[in-house]
Amino acid sequence: MSTTWKSFGAAALTVTVSVLVPSVAAAQSAPTFTKDIAPIFQDKCEACHRPDSIAPMSLMTYEEARPWARSIKGRVESRQMPPWHINRTVGIQEFKNDRSLTDEQIATVTKWVDSGAPKGDMKDMPKAKVWPSEQGWNFAAQFGQKEPDLIVRSTPWTQKAGANDTWWKPIVESGLTEDRWVRAIEIRPGTVKGRKITHHAIANLMQTEDGIAANDADPNGRQVAGTFMEWAVGKQGEMMRPNSGKLLRAGSKFRWDIHYSNGGEDITDVVELGIYLYPKGQEPKYRQVLHLMGGTNAGGVDIPPNALKVTEGFFVLRENGRVESFQPHMHLRGKAMQMDAILPTGQVQTLSYVDRFDFQWMNVYQYADNAAPLLPKGTIIKVLAWHDNTSANKNNPDPNVWVGYGDRTVDEMAHAWVNVTYMPDADYQAELAARREALAKKTSQQQQQ
Ligand code: HEC
Fold it and tell me: Average pLDDT in the 92-117 region?
């Protein structure tokens, strides 16, 4: 060897070095669980992948995660996990609750698996993340309270082992004798076992409304009950923004709409709605309303066998407002939903496009503060929904039947739940000006770089 080295001289040395350097670098940079992967899993996976939660396995420790390495690579590369179905090229891209992985994070996870999923040094392992108790009231401490000011419970339902899915719709009184403003809401199944059967729960607020808070009438001319709060797996409560609140009227009632599914044993449970109120007499400046928008429910949803169908629905903003969130709602044939704003000028803006809707995931996309669209009075929100009743839709139970509107998952519906904070003109103009200023600042910073 040494003679070869000598005879090739400097040229051989150069070659040897240039081959060595990248391989040493690769070995050094192979991601390890403790240093590179655990922080990603804590941030983006543990919300569901921890003991007693909804996912099939915990990903908190190396020993738990290692056997799933191959499956993790597949689900992460294809963006099936974490569940987040916003199209990444259209509309608003900044969200408060974005749980998707960045391209770099995906590359890191893939590289970790391809390098044999090494553990790494335990001294690199981040401290275990502390999760709030799912059976506790998570906002209570922030308000210096032990529990919410008002707890409203649905009437108990027993879901028998093996029974078909049930939609339970009891009506209960709020018990309020005066109008009060709400600053935060939490909703949860009453027990840990209840989590096995509670697929989804909505608390509809029944109270007389007029003006901006009134929902559009349904296709039969009946007034639609407004949604107050909704619970879906993995969803935390709802804290109003500063100076904002929902109005709860004296004598109001809640109509529950709870989807129970088979839990494998007889389970009796209730759903609890915890409401935190502003102190008596304190009225927040802005009113927030969670609207059902663009419902093409009773009229439009009529889907032929083996066909794709597009429907569109509309909602008019009666005051200036900031759109805080978007949550598409469809059933098994749901394929995609897009929300556009048609401005009074006629200009159309696409706000969001969920192109891989998955019925299993009732995701709420909450816009970041500086990205939540500010829309003037008179804006029309257009909700476009696609249903796929062909065999290409892997969730489709039967592509050979007509599908109409209904509550069962084998029936269809299409609407968006959209939370709006309404503002008087002066505040709206001030918000717009602040937004423009922030944008101008950002642009000039980027130009200086
Ligand atoms: C919002 C809840 C949630 C989040 C966040 C989440 N998962 Fe999941 N995951 C689930 C559920 C529920 C399942 C089982 C249903 C399914 O397979 O889709 C699952 C299934 C999986 C599977 C398939 C397991 C199998 O049977 O092969 C893998 C792998 C996985 N998740 C990895 C991840 C990783 C990695 C992350 C974070 C980067 C993540 N998940 C984030 C809820 C979640």
Answer: 96
